[in-house]
Specification:
3-stranded antiparallel beta sheet, 13 strands, alpha+beta, globular, single chain, Aminoglycoside 3'-phosphotransferase, Chain: A, domain 2, 8-stranded antiparallel beta sheet
Length: 362
């Protein structure tokens, strides 16, 4: 967390400079950083009511204190947006959220909670086009926020801002409902994609360069050797599918899931989304609900179907091995190029997962 705070501090001036570039999209008023240092928001009750349920804070007490300290020490700056000279835009926001990811995806997101809209402004044509292509392909299988309008010249996409149940208010039944919805939709999608000509990835070849990484060598020692040689067909997947990228909508007559944030979508081993759903919930939220159920075999039936689509056999005796292999993929795709302190944060939590699995099987 200290490293993350230092990273925030180092790019603070750049984010404020970018915010000024987009102030013509913002409602006049006073803007400042929020307490999680993830976005800049207008200081009024309406923005605060909409913002905090949407950007729910998963940090623990220690992390929240460090963020609070940094917020009141280094991030006290305020910006006044007066609207003078503002150009006519199709969008007026109250929250500005810069977006950064490890796959070089860049965009700016502006939120209007009063009208229920979110605007993405892309810095690259390739990201703008890619977002539209992903929406067109996956909306058939996974409900996604509706695109309200788009502007190719300015690389803008405006979507509906979905009202959802904050994760901290989910019941155990909600947990299970979201997982079942994800599995049902994923199986339909995987079955269709399995009929195409697919690219195979052999883990032993893919992970060859990783074996010299001392920090993950312990994983290779725990995997049943023949599983490291098994080829895995790759298909285009979400790539970052976990609870925070699922919006649960629930009222008296309806309960459904909307899937968001597809910027990590690419060709990945067919099981990648399923294990990511389990793993990131444990890493970010310190939540083992899904992992315990996986170890208990509650998803074996769905995994057997998933593997069978690609001519492979899922063996429940190797549950831990499959999870190890997934993490090697995750390391390869998401962690390999990160600073060491960030990689070690993931690896430390991963070891805790493994220890829990071993103790649970004793």
């Amino acid at each position: 967390m200290i490293g993350k705070v230092l990273a925030f501090i180092s790019r603070k001036k750049q984010v404020f400079k970018e915010f000024l570039e987009y102030q013509n999209y913002m409602n006049p008023g006073i803007y400042q950083w929020d307490n999680t240092l993830r976005f800049i928001m207008k200081t009024n009750p309406n923005a605060e009511r909409g913002t905090y349920p949407t950007f729910y804070n998963y940090y623990g007490k220690k992390e929240r204190f460090l963020l609070w300290l940094a917020r009141h020490t280094f991030f006290r700056d305020k910006i006044v947006v007066n609207g003078n000279g503002a150009v006519k835009t199709h969008f007026v926001g109250e929250v500005y959220r810069p977006f950064r990811s490890t796959n070089n995806y860049r965009d700016k997101k502006l939120f209007n909670f009063a009208e229920g809209k979110v605007l993405s402004i892309f810095s690259r044509d390739i990201d703008y086009r890619r977002t539209l292509d992903i929406h067109k392909k996956f909306q058939i299988f996974f409900p996604m926020p509706k695109i309200l309008w788009k502007n190719q010249q300015n690389r803008e996409i405006c979507e509906e801002l979905v009202e959802f149940v904050p994760i901290e208010m989910w019941t155990e039944d909600d947990y299970e409902f979201v997982m079942n919805d994800m599995l049902t939709r994923s199986l339909r999608y995987l079955q269709k994609e399995s009929k195409r000509k697919l690219r195979d990835v052999t883990p032993r070849m893919t992970f060859l360069a990783l074996e010299n990484k001392q920090e993950i060598r312990f994983i290779y020692k725990m995997v049943t050797p023949h599983l490291l040689r098994e080829s895995h067909p790759c298909i285009e997947l979400h790539g970052d599918l976990w609870r925070s990228n699922t919006f649960l909508i629930k009222d008296r007559n309806l309960r459904k899931v909307v899937y968001i944030d597809w910027e990590f979508s690419e060709e990945l081993p067919f099981f990648y989304d399923f294990f990511t759903f389990i793993w990131l919930d444990g890493y970010v939220n310190q939540e083992d609900f899904y992992f315990k159920r996986y170890l208990a075999g509650e998803y074996d039936s769905e995994l057997q179907k998933m593997y069978s689509f690609f001519g492979l056999t899922y063996n429940p005796a190797y549950r831990i091995d499959y999870f190890h292999i997934y993490f090697l993929y995750f390391y390869s795709y998401r962690l390999f190029d990160l600073p060491k302190y960030e990689r070690m944060s993931f690896i430390k939590r991963y070891k805790q997962f493994v220890e829990m699995a071993i103790s649970g099987n004793d």
